[in-house]
Amino acid sequence: MFQFKSIGRTAYFLIVPLLVIGMAGLVTHSNLVLHDTMDKDIEEIMTEKTKAVSGMLEQDILKPAHTAVNFARIVEGLQLQQYDLSFYETLSRQFIESDPNTFGVGMWLEPNVYRQGQPYFSAYAYRDGGSIATTQEYNTAEYDYPSQPWYAGARNTDQPFLFADIFYDEGLDIYTLTAAAPIYNAEGKMIGVTNSDMDLTTVTNLIKETSVAKTGYAALIDQNGQIIASGNGQTTRDMAEADAKDSMEKISAILASGRGMGILAGSEGDLGVFYHQIPNTNLYVSLVAPMSELMGELNNQVYSSIAIGVAVILILAAILYLFIRYMTRNIKKINDIAMHMADGDFTHKLELTSKDEFGTLAANFNRMSVSIKNTIQEVGAKSMIVSSTAEGLGRDAELARGAANVVVSDITLMSEGAQLQLKSTVDSATSLNELNVGVQRIAESASEVAVITRDMSIRADQGRSVVGEAISNMNVINASVKEVSVAVGRMENHSDRIGEIINVIAGITKQTNLLALNAGIEASRAGEHGRGFGVVAAEIGKLADQSKRSAEMITEIITEIKQDTASVVVAMNRGLTDVQSGTDTMKHVGAAFQHIVGEIQSVNERMLEISSSSEQMSAGSEQLSASSDEMSHLAQEAYGKTAQVQQSAGSQLAVAENVKASSAALMQLTKDLEEVINQFKV
Fold first, then answer.
1. What is the mean pLDDT of residues 463-473?
2. Topology given in CATH for the domain delimited by 373-676
3. How buried is residue 163: exposed, middle or buried, by Cβ count under 10 Å (0-12/13-18/19+)?
4. Beta-carbon-side half-sphere exposure of residue 636 (alpha carbons within 13 Å)
5. Contacts 24+ apart (CB under 8 A), 170-176
6. Is the model's pTM score more than 0.70?
């Protein structure tokens, strides 16, 4: 499957086609709605116009009906037999004279109503050129007016009047419309009919003068579909018989639909036929116009909507292009900075001056970079201090080890002296047992013991001095170890601060992931229109994941540093404990030496007493023997103390060795920390 390498291209090539499809669908839907609306508007406009024309014609067409009704009411008020034919003919003339469009007016009585045995009685007047004439030619069995449709219709209707079918007078070349009204006697019995024949020339002229659209026209049609008059001059009477029949069938079908409109197929396109029945008549006013003309405005609006849709698509595509370019540029800048940070380079700065989310993200990135850079620099400085302190601690440990070696050597000599002293005291005890043999030998032994005790005193003083120096050195080591411990503690605190900063970075990454997720959700809610933003939100989420992984890497490094620092702290605490133990031991050794010196001085004094009072030794042999036993006991104790001091000195030497090893390990850890820090470029 083809994959785009750029978010911008992905968004552009996904959104633009969707935008085009959406706009095309919108334009198509709008055109369909517009088409339906225009159809309704056209139908409504044409229907209103047909009603308007029908209203104008109704006033003229109803005049013969009113004439027939008025004439019938007049006749009903008369005593028919009291008036002769001329009277009724005069009434007919008067009605004709009252309306220029009235062609003829007549009164027609039922058989035997006017006079018994007279089947026909009528008075009919009509226009004859410029004058009004009367005729009796319809009072014949041949015409038999009671059987005529207009008369039969009036006889059977319950309405005040009715219209008969339109009649074309070939002699006069005019169409006439006959209105017939029934005449009733006092008992309500129909006794005749009055009629009024209207010349439709004025109506047809009005139809011909009515304009519809550009090339359309109006037409007057009867209920049979016959075209009485039309604006294009064509009537059913002018057509060939087959064409006239076909035309009447099509028009009758349209009228039968009752919709008020219909479509007729023409040689030059479909014709829209809109009709309305003239009230109280069987005539219809029809407006006919080519559908292309009626829909011309619709087509113009369709073209306009298409042009507007294309313009909107181009504008939106341009806006989308600029917006995507803006976003991809900013994302690229952020990605470049993230790559530098992932490589350990914190010398670059994200330059975004916008006030939107990218500007805020850039500011946070720069703050994070500065914070990490400062932390790394501070850790580097502290690691140098730790390295220097560890190096000093190593030198101090070396000095302590040398001093401990000296102490061990001196204590060994002191132990040998103590052993000699013990042997001497044993010999003294033996000599005392042989006191009876000779005082001289006792004196000689006392002299030897005096010399030995003097040497022991000198060596005891030296041992005490060495122990004092060892205690001073152990105090120095103790202070150095405490300083290193404090420095390591500060380094651990700085590691904790770095961990807090990394937690802040992780929090920002989490919030960024959450924002990307919320944007994805909103994009998903937006549907197709939000897909581009959903892709951008996913990329921001990926970028946040990269930042999270970088933060996790730094967290792992800091964790290792903290673990190493904790190891150093443990080693330093152990060294501090050992140094303190050595110091306490050396204090005990010093106390032991002090005690030994005191004892040796006591022995020396006693030996002087023995030497000076050798003459009295015989008398005090028992006391000398007791003193000799005590001296032997003290010698044994001194020998035991020197052994303890020798053991403590050995322990102190081991502690010094441990301190030296711990300082070497600390220096190695600081080197490792410097190597890790040197991976970052600040």
1. 72
2. Helix Hairpins (1.10.287)
3. buried
4. 6
5. 174/103, 174/199, 174/200, 174/201, 175/199, 175/200, 175/201, 175/204, 175/228, 175/229, 176/103, 176/104, 176/200
6. no
The answer to whether 123 and 204 have CB atoms below 8 angstroms apart is: no
Q: What DSSP string describes 180-211?
A: EEEEE-TTS-EEEEEEEEEETHHHHHHHHH-E
SS3 219: strand
Reading the block at residue 295, the tokens are 């829909």
Count CA within 13 A, CB hemisphere, residue 547: 28
Bridge-based pairing of strands 261-266 and 283-290 is unpaired
Q: How far apart are CA 281 and CA 178, in angstroms?
A: 11
Tokens of 559: 């964790």
Match 């030198």 to its residue by tokens.
395
With CA atoms as reference, report the closest residue to 231 among 205, 256, 192, 194. Answer: 205
Spatial distance between the Cα atoms of 633 and 137, rounded to a whole number of angstroms? 190
Expressed in angstroms, the distance from the first to the final Cα of the chain is 43
Q: Sort 480 into a burial class: Cβ within 10 Å, 0-12 / 13-18 / 19+.
A: buried
pLDDT tens-digit series, residues 522-538? 666 666 666 676 677 67
Q: Return the biggest CA–CA distance within the chain.
A: 219
**Strands 131-135 and 162-163: what pairing?**
unpaired
User: Which residues make beta-bridge pairs with 163?
Assistant: 179
- Give the separation between CA 248 and CA 265, rounded to whole angstroms: 14
CB atoms within 10 A of CB 156: 10
CA distance 161 to 163: 7
Give per-residue pLDDT as tens, 634-676: 657 766 766 676 676 677 667 667 767 777 776 787 777 777 6
> Following DSSP, what letter does each residue of 578-640 receive, concatenated?
HHHHHHHHHHHHHHHHHHHHHHHHHHHHHHHHHHHTGGGTTTTHHHHHHHHHHHHHHHHHHHH
Rounded-to-integer distance, Cα 198 and Cα 61, Å: 8
Q: How far is CA 170 from CA 167, 173, 174, 237, in A?
A: 9, 5, 7, 11
**Cα 68 from Cα 95, distance rounded (Å):** 9
Decide: 578 and 660 in contact? Cβ < 8 Å: no
CA distance 369 to 388: 29
Token pair recorded at residue 296: 């011309």
pLDDT per position as a tens digit, 427-467: 766 766 665 566 566 567 667 766 766 776 687 677 678 66
Would you say 678 and 376 are in contact if contact means Cβ atoms under 8 Å apart?
Answer: no
Q: Which CATH architecture has domain 53-293?
A: 2-Layer Sandwich (3.30)
Delimit the domains of the chain by residue range: 53-293, 373-676
What residue has token string 């009796």? 136
Which letter does DSSP use for residue 78 in this model? S
Amino acid at 344: G
Structure tokens at 513: 């992931």
Residue 504 to residue 93: CA distance in whole angstroms? 114
- Compute the distance between CA of residue 383 and CA of residue 386 in angstroms, rounded to an integer: 5
Residue-level length of the chain: 682
**Host H or E run for residue 263:** strand 261-266
Can you read off the two tokens belonging to residue 98? 């009252």
d(CA 290, CA 267): 11
Report the alpha-carbon distance of residue 333 to residue 359 in Å, rounded.
12
- Three-state SS for 275-328 is EEECCCCCEEEEEEEEHHHHCHHHHHHHHHHHHHHHHHHHHHHHHHHHHHHHHH
* Phi, psi torsion values for 121, nearest 5 degrees: -150, 120
- How far apart, in whole angstroms, are the C-alpha atoms of residue 510 and residue 506? 6
Q: Tokens 């209707």 — which residue?
A: 157
